[in-house]
Design a protein that fits this description.
The protein is built from seven helices and no strands. It is mainly α. It has a domain of 104 residues. Helix 3 runs antiparallel to helix 4, helix 3 packs antiparallel against helix 7 and helix 4 packs parallel to helix 7. It is rod-shaped. The relative contact order is 0.10.
Protein backbone atom coordinates (compact mmCIF):
# COMPACT_ATOMS: atom_id res chain seq x y z
CA UNK A 1 0.00 0.00 0.00
CA UNK A 2 2.82 2.29 0.83
CA UNK A 3 4.49 1.52 -2.43
CA UNK A 4 1.37 2.45 -4.40
CA UNK A 5 1.14 5.89 -2.70
CA UNK A 6 4.74 6.65 -3.64
CA UNK A 7 4.15 5.77 -7.25
CA UNK A 8 1.24 8.23 -7.80
CA UNK A 9 2.21 11.83 -8.50
CA UNK A 10 0.95 14.63 -6.29
CA UNK A 11 -2.20 16.61 -7.30
CA UNK A 12 -1.43 19.76 -9.24
CA UNK A 13 -2.90 23.10 -8.05
CA UNK A 14 -5.86 24.59 -10.00
CA UNK A 15 -5.03 26.30 -13.21
CA UNK A 16 -6.41 29.82 -13.80
CA UNK A 17 -8.04 29.77 -17.22
CA UNK A 18 -9.56 33.30 -16.94
CA UNK A 19 -8.41 35.68 -19.61
CA UNK A 20 -9.52 38.72 -17.51
CA UNK A 21 -7.69 39.49 -14.25
CA UNK A 22 -9.88 39.49 -11.08
CA UNK A 23 -9.29 43.19 -10.38
CA UNK A 24 -10.79 44.08 -13.77
CA UNK A 25 -13.92 42.07 -12.96
CA UNK A 26 -14.24 43.95 -9.63
CA UNK A 27 -13.80 47.37 -11.25
CA UNK A 28 -16.21 46.51 -14.06
CA UNK A 29 -18.86 45.36 -11.56
CA UNK A 30 -18.40 48.57 -9.56
CA UNK A 31 -18.83 50.71 -12.69
CA UNK A 32 -21.95 48.81 -13.79
CA UNK A 33 -23.55 49.05 -10.34
CA UNK A 34 -22.75 52.77 -10.17
CA UNK A 35 -24.36 53.36 -13.56
CA UNK A 36 -27.47 51.41 -12.51
CA UNK A 37 -27.68 53.36 -9.22
CA UNK A 38 -27.35 56.71 -11.00
CA UNK A 39 -29.98 55.68 -13.56
CA UNK A 40 -32.42 54.79 -10.78
CA UNK A 41 -31.68 58.02 -8.89
CA UNK A 42 -32.14 60.23 -11.97
CA UNK A 43 -35.22 58.27 -13.01
CA UNK A 44 -36.89 58.75 -9.63
CA UNK A 45 -35.95 62.41 -9.60
CA UNK A 46 -37.26 62.95 -13.13
CA UNK A 47 -40.54 61.08 -12.72
CA UNK A 48 -41.28 62.22 -9.19
CA UNK A 49 -44.36 64.37 -8.88
CA UNK A 50 -43.60 67.94 -8.16
CA UNK A 51 -44.40 68.63 -4.53
CA UNK A 52 -46.67 71.58 -4.24
CA UNK A 53 -45.48 73.91 -1.53
CA UNK A 54 -48.34 75.80 -0.02
CA UNK A 55 -47.90 79.40 1.00
CA UNK A 56 -48.39 80.34 4.67
CA UNK A 57 -51.76 81.86 3.72
CA UNK A 58 -52.91 78.65 2.02
CA UNK A 59 -51.74 76.50 4.96
CA UNK A 60 -53.53 78.75 7.45
CA UNK A 61 -56.76 78.77 5.44
CA UNK A 62 -56.61 74.98 5.11
CA UNK A 63 -56.06 74.58 8.86
CA UNK A 64 -58.94 76.95 9.63
CA UNK A 65 -61.24 75.06 7.25
CA UNK A 66 -60.19 71.81 8.88
CA UNK A 67 -61.19 72.89 12.38
CA UNK A 68 -64.38 74.60 11.22
CA UNK A 69 -66.26 71.31 11.50
CA UNK A 70 -65.22 71.05 15.16
CA UNK A 71 -66.78 74.36 16.31
CA UNK A 72 -69.72 72.58 17.94
CA UNK A 73 -67.72 69.64 19.36
CA UNK A 74 -64.77 71.42 20.97
CA UNK A 75 -65.10 73.54 24.07
CA UNK A 76 -64.75 77.25 23.21
CA UNK A 77 -61.67 77.51 25.43
CA UNK A 78 -59.85 74.75 23.50
CA UNK A 79 -61.14 76.06 20.19
CA UNK A 80 -59.82 79.57 20.91
CA UNK A 81 -56.38 78.11 21.66
CA UNK A 82 -56.34 76.17 18.40
CA UNK A 83 -57.50 79.10 16.27
CA UNK A 84 -55.04 81.39 18.02
CA UNK A 85 -52.18 78.97 17.37
CA UNK A 86 -53.07 78.78 13.67
CA UNK A 87 -53.18 82.57 13.37
CA UNK A 88 -49.95 83.02 15.32
CA UNK A 89 -48.16 80.46 13.14
CA UNK A 90 -49.46 82.26 10.05
CA UNK A 91 -48.16 85.64 11.24
CA UNK A 92 -44.75 84.14 12.09
CA UNK A 93 -44.44 82.43 8.69
CA UNK A 94 -45.96 85.18 6.54
CA UNK A 95 -44.54 88.31 8.18
CA UNK A 96 -41.58 86.89 10.11
CA UNK A 97 -42.79 88.47 13.34
CA UNK A 98 -42.18 86.89 16.77
CA UNK A 99 -45.85 86.63 17.64
CA UNK A 100 -45.43 83.27 19.39
CA UNK A 101 -43.03 84.77 21.95
CA UNK A 102 -45.06 87.86 22.80
CA UNK A 103 -48.23 88.60 24.68
CA UNK A 104 -51.13 90.02 22.73
CA UNK A 105 -50.50 93.53 24.05
CA UNK A 106 -46.79 93.38 23.20
CA UNK A 107 -47.55 92.16 19.72
CA UNK A 108 -50.21 94.79 19.06
CA UNK A 109 -47.80 97.51 20.23
CA UNK A 110 -45.10 96.08 17.94
CA UNK A 111 -47.32 96.16 14.83
CA UNK A 112 -48.80 99.59 15.59
CA UNK A 113 -46.25 101.20 13.28
CA UNK A 114 -45.65 98.19 11.01
CA UNK A 115 -46.19 98.91 7.31
CA UNK A 116 -47.20 95.25 6.67
CA UNK A 117 -50.62 95.75 8.21
CA UNK A 118 -53.38 98.12 7.23
CA UNK A 119 -55.65 99.80 9.77
CA UNK A 120 -58.44 97.29 9.10
CA UNK A 121 -56.09 94.36 9.62
CA UNK A 122 -54.72 95.86 12.85
CA UNK A 123 -58.23 96.41 14.16
CA UNK A 124 -59.29 92.90 13.16
CA UNK A 125 -56.21 91.37 14.75
CA UNK A 126 -56.69 93.43 17.93
CA UNK A 127 -60.32 92.32 18.19
CA UNK A 128 -59.36 88.69 17.57
CA UNK A 129 -56.58 88.72 20.18
CA UNK A 130 -58.80 90.49 22.73
CA UNK A 131 -61.54 87.89 22.25
CA UNK A 132 -59.02 85.05 22.58
CA UNK A 133 -57.54 86.55 25.73
CA UNK A 134 -61.01 87.03 27.17
CA UNK A 135 -61.84 83.35 26.57
CA UNK A 136 -58.44 81.97 27.57
CA UNK A 137 -57.46 84.12 30.53
CA UNK A 138 -60.61 85.76 31.86
CA UNK A 139 -62.49 82.45 31.53
CA UNK A 140 -65.35 84.15 29.73
CA UNK A 141 -68.22 81.70 29.28
CA UNK A 142 -68.00 81.53 25.52
CA UNK A 143 -70.53 79.84 23.28
CA UNK A 144 -70.08 78.09 19.95
CA UNK A 145 -71.19 81.39 18.37
CA UNK A 146 -68.16 83.07 19.93
CA UNK A 147 -65.98 80.30 18.53
CA UNK A 148 -67.51 80.81 15.11
CA UNK A 149 -66.84 84.56 15.31
CA UNK A 150 -63.21 83.87 16.26
CA UNK A 151 -62.91 81.55 13.29
CA UNK A 152 -64.43 84.14 10.95
CA UNK A 153 -62.09 86.85 12.23
CA UNK A 154 -59.06 84.62 11.86
CA UNK A 155 -60.07 83.59 8.35
CA UNK A 156 -60.74 87.18 7.35
CA UNK A 157 -57.39 88.34 8.72
CA UNK A 158 -55.57 85.59 6.80
CA UNK A 159 -57.45 86.53 3.63
CA UNK A 160 -56.45 90.15 4.20
CA UNK A 161 -59.71 92.01 4.48
CA UNK A 162 -62.20 93.49 6.88
CA UNK A 163 -64.80 91.37 8.56
CA UNK A 164 -68.16 91.58 6.88
CA UNK A 165 -70.88 92.10 9.52
CA UNK A 166 -73.36 89.24 9.71
Amino acid sequence: MMLLAQALPDIAPPVNYSLVPPWMIFVGSLVVLTIIGLAIWYGRRFFRKKQVTLSPRERALAALSEIESEVERIAPYQFSIRVSNILRRYVVEQFDLPMTRQTSVEFLNAIASAPNFGDEEKALLADFLNRCDLIKFARYEATPEDSRLLLDEARQFVKGGALVPA
